[in-house]
Write a structure and sequence with these properties.
This protein is mainly α. The protein contains 2 helices and no strands. The protein is globular, with a radius of gyration of 11 Å.
Length: 47
Amino acid sequence: MPLQPDLTLHHSKLITHIRTLAVKGIQGVVLFGPAGEGLSFSATERL
């Protein structure tokens, strides 16, 4: 997850990364997956 210095999600970098993966043929994205970082974000940020 690309984060800003204050540890909030860097939305534009995430979108750029997902678009790059899509161009390479990826068919899906799982946010807050097995790495466990989901618990570091608030419920609002996870939505």
